Amino acid sequence: MKPPSSDRWVLSCTLLALVLRLFRIGHLSLHIDELISVDSAAWATGITFARGLMHDIHGPFTSALLHGWMQLGRSEAWMRLLYALPSVLTVPLFYYLTRSHLGYVSARIATLAIAISPFQIWYGQEVRNYAWLLFFVTAVLVAFTRIWEGRGGRQAWLGLTALLALSLLTNYSTVFLVVSLTVLVLTRRNRRLAFRWAAMLIVLGVVFSPWFVDWYHRVDGQRLFVDRPRSFGVPLRQASGFSAAHVPYTFWVFAFGYSLGPSLLQLHLDRSVSSLLEHWPVLVAGAFSVGTAAVIGAWEVARRRRTIFLACLLVIPLALAIALTVRDVKAFNVRYVMVAYPPFLMLLAAGWKWRGFLGRASALVALVLNVVSLGNYYFDPRYAKEDMRAAARVILENERPGDTIVVIDNNRPFRYYYVDRGEGDSPAFHLHKRFLRTDDDLRAHVQSAMEPGGRTWLVLSRWWEVAPKETIYAVFDELLTRRSHWELPGVELGLYESTEDVIPPEAE
């Protein structure tokens, strides 16, 4: 029998999720990935836009949604609201999913966990398709569970097919989920189930084939089977492939988000053991919480005969993402295996349910660490994304006629705030990583951007994708004289003058 307070608990967690996803939803400026979504939704109108959706590899479903949504407003908060809503709706869906497999107690714990999840909130406040992806993945798993347990008729199959189609058109990593579910169907050894599943896959394949073919050609999909280099050379920094550390880091982010322990910036700059040891108390506490809950949860899952179910959903997407990285088709990123997030959190919830000391201690530590992570996400600039809005504002308030701007490497967000919104008109030069393979390349591009008698602004972010920061500053200091410097979240801003225009100290 369902506990009488379960509905109130789900409602309370859903309202909490809404508050957390709306809190300071517009305080961060749009970053590069968000502007990819904005550009995909706003580049055209009418039939031209509709035709362009056939070549949209960033999620044609959400691009179409955002296209209509932006007709009502284009503020950061308004655009992100479109992604906060599915993130909130995922909370009650996740309750029903967990309850079906692990019972009421684990479901209530899982509902609170996903409501306050920094990982969920991060993508619930981002103009990207991942909040919608997680919503559809959870809905797919709810529908699939009914069929898996023999409670699904024609309506369940139609609903599952529609949800998978929408999920595929939202984010292509849904393919990982489809493969996982296919393996589960095969383990059933039920011919009728397998036949219906195969028929559904044929329908999905027909619907999805135009986008898959386009994606395959864009990423040079033959590299899945043939060893050959990319079509462009190596820039000043070396490309990074798969590392075994990606696996535990994925679980860390699933559990505590990107705003606990080493920041994304710190990990890009220094992944050494000594750097990680700066955060050892948090890392040890988090490892205890996740490790203990996973071990106890695995026992509980086995007791309920759900081991194969959760293992397929958790392991297969991770293995497929690693395979794509090893074949140099796509760099590994935690968000690419988001389809594995629901089974991971279900496993932890099963462990946190245990009433022994270890289970309660693990749950308490996880709660505290998630609260700390949320505080860091909302208020600590060390964990903030690049604030190009502030960088553009500084230049707009201090620029002079004849100034030039050099942007390394995050050009689109800067142009959005400086040109599109701020209507700045100083020439801006984007130094892209593809064209900066040596120090001389960097020096030549900086010299081409300099104006005689003028000033040069340096907008520096994501420099690890181009060259070491020391190299960039060395070139600028060699050619120009620094006059001012600003440090903003994720962005460093410098104002330089030509050396021949500088007044010697003794003449001042």
Description of the molecule:
The protein is α/β, with parallel strands linked by helices. The chain folds into two domains: 348 residues, no CATH class; 120 residues, D-Maltodextrin-Binding Protein, domain 2 (3-Layer(aba) Sandwich). 61% of the residues lie in helices and 6% in strands. Strand 1, helix 20 and strand 2 form a beta-alpha-beta unit. Helix 15 packs across helix 18 and helix 19 crosses helix 20. The protein starts with 5 loop residues before the first helix and ends in a 10-residue tail after the last strand.
**Number of helical elements:** 22
Number of domains: 2
Helix and strand element order? HHHHHHHHHHHHHHHHHHHEHEHEHEE
Distance between the termini: 85 Å
Report the strand count: 5
Main sheet: which strands, in order across?
2-1-3-5-4
Mean pLDDT: 90
By helix and strand content, what is the structural category?
Answer: alpha/beta
Uncertain runs are: 232-239, 501-508
Tell me the fraction of residues in β-strands, as a range: 5-15%
Biggest beta sheet summary: 5 strands, mixed
Q: What is the approximate shape?
A: globular
Helix content: 55-70%
